[in-house]
Amino acid sequence: MQGLNNDEVQAMTRVEYEVNGSKIKLTSSIVKKYLVSGDPTKVTNEEVGVFLQLCKGQKLNPFLREAYLVKYGNRPATMIVGKDTFTKRESRNPDSEGHEAGVIVINLKKEIEQRSGTFYLKGKEQLVGGWAKAYRKDKKF
């Protein structure tokens, strides 16, 4: 990597951290070989380095699908935190009062509809998004 010293290069290509009592060791080669969704040959070293730092900083385990590195074509890679990561964290928070979640679809009447849950008629309705609300004891909104 251009312009970085050896310590910075090492930090961008290898991380070690702990998540819920499990030691996680990730390297650029592990990410490229096992953890890229899409085309791993197109992902850049910088994109992998940012993904490694995201996982370490947020204590995410990509082997449990808590984080995804997605790369298609020559567009920039996308780093996605999995939905279950948020629900696990919410359930461990003593201030949590639960959550609601759902989907946004274009329904049979060709209208945009926000629904609770995940049901839609695949092939007849179009899934276009999702939503979630988290509730806390110590905050009104």
Model description:
- This protein has 141 residues and is an alpha+beta fold.
- It has four helices and eight strands.
- The strands form three sheets. A three-stranded mixed beta sheet has the order 3-4-5. A three-stranded antiparallel beta sheet has the order 7-6-8, covered by helices on one side. A two-stranded antiparallel sheet has the order 1-2.
- Helix 3 links the parallel strand 3 and strand 4.
- The longest helix is centred in the middle third of the chain and has 14 residues.
- It starts with 5 loop residues before the first helix and ends in a 5-residue tail after the last strand.
- The mean pLDDT is 89.
Q: What is the CA-atom radius of gyration, in angstroms?
A: 19 Å
Low-confidence stretches: none
Question: Helical residue percent?
Answer: 25-40%
Mean pLDDT: 89
Distance between the termini: 44 Å
Instruction: Write down how many β-strands occur, each being a DSSP E stretch of 2 or more residues.
Output: 8
Run of helices and strands: HEEHEHEEHEEE
Strand content: 35-45%
Helical stretch tally: 4
